[in-house]
Design brief:
It is a single chain. The chain is α+β, with helices and mostly antiparallel strands. It contains eleven helices and eight strands. It has a four-stranded mixed sheet with strand order 5-6-8-7, with helices on one face. Strand 3 and strand 4 form a beta hairpin. The two termini are about 45 Å apart.
């Protein structure tokens, strides 16, 4: 809520202008006798900010990428790298002209992989991209929750597709994979911004460096989990026939363990729950039993009825492994909660 208080400006020493601050306002924002304050001017306004609360404004980073005959994949990597490293404006330049194919590739990349970006200049020799998303409007925790729910939906749909050999669900998983990547890149961008300017922590939603490192690792694990949910869906789409029923049931039992572990791991991380993280890791021990049952089912199944089984099994195993890794990160970040301090 905005408040107004009119004060007279006084002259001291013949050249210095002085204005007094309302005592109540000053105390509420931490200004006391002897405090240091920063005066910051913006156009026709002057702000008074306690020194300890002052944050240096972040400079708008601009990148110029010389295309010079690079292919679409190389250009895409350069755009993503510039984006996650915090560049606000990315110019792609080729004095010999940018092909229509490359322009279309750039537009598709922005739509599929980059949160909050627009092309603000599209000339024969230059394409300029502006990142419009505001980190205060989409802080880290909101972006992370979105990434988590997208990955959760992918796991649920991939499990349904596996059990019911549902082509539509499998296709939906592949479509969600790009969304997971988009938020993953955005979160890495926020974390890189924090690394360059720790004063931006409150805007981004980070408490400290330790927490930032935890998020960076978990985001990578989330991307990998989403990739393996996509792999399972791809094999369902590519398979010419349904997997043998007995093998399919064993695979789905394992997948249920993987899905539960994922849910436990992410919940423990977001709630900073050490005990739930321990429970997640313990649950992985049930995998060895399921693996033996799967081997027995494969022996009993008709020859040639399980060409994709081993690959699907490995993807399920990786989801379990990455969920365990997330739980371990949670334990590392919250170990002080269970230690007796000297």
């Amino acid at each position: 809520m905005r408040e107004k208080n009119i004060r007279n400006v006084l002259v001291v020493g013949g050249s210095t202008l002085v204005v007094s601050l309302p005592k109540k306002w000053a105390e509420e924002i931490g200004i006391r006798p002897g405090s240091q304050v920063v005066l910051e001017r913006e156009k026709d306004k002057i702000a008074v900010i306690p020194l300890e609360k002052y944050k240096e404004p972040m400079k708008e980073k601009k990148a110029i990428i010389r295309i010079n005959g690079k292919n679409a994949n190389s250009v895409s990597r350069l755009i993503i790298s510039s984006y996650i490293n915090g560049y606000k404006e990315i110019s792609l330049v080729d004095n010999n002209g940018i092909t229509i194919e490359l322009r279309n590739s750039i537009k598709e990349l922005l739509k599929r992989k980059i949160v909050g970006s627009e092309i603000i200049l599209d000339s024969p020799t230059e394409v300029k991209i502006k990142v419009l998303v505001n980190q205060e409007e989409l802080p880290l925790i909101n972006a992370f929750r979105r990434m988590y729910f997208l990955t959760k939906n992918m796991i649920e749909d991939a499990g349904h597709a596996l059990l019911n050999w549902d082509i539509e669900k499998a296709m939906n998983v592949l479509q969600l994979d790009d969304e997971v990547d988009r938020f993953g890149f955005y979160i890495v961008r926020l974390l890189n911004t924090y690394a360059e300017n720790p004063n931006a922590s409150s805007e981004i939603g980070i408490i400290d460096l330790k927490e930032a490192l935890g998020y960076r690792v978990v985001v990578k694990f989330l991307e990998r989990i989403a990739d393996h949910a996509s792999n399972i869906s791809k094999f369902i789409l590519e398979s010419e026939k349904r997997i043998d029923e007995l093998i399919l049931n064993r695979l789905h039992e394992m997948y249920t363990v993987a899905s539960e572990m994922f849910e436990y791991a992410l919940t423990s991380f977001m709630k900073k729950d050490y005990e739930l993280a321990e429970k997640t890791i313990s649950k992985a021990k049930t995998l060895s039993v399921n693996e033996k049952e799967l081997e027995q089912a494969m022996v009993k199944a008709p020859v040639g009825s399980h060409p994709y089984v081993r690959i699907i099994y490995e993807s399920i195993k990786r989801i379990i492994d990455y969920s365990s890794d997330i739980a371990e990160v949670t334990i590392d970040l919250n170990i002080e909660k269970v230690l007796d301090k000297l």
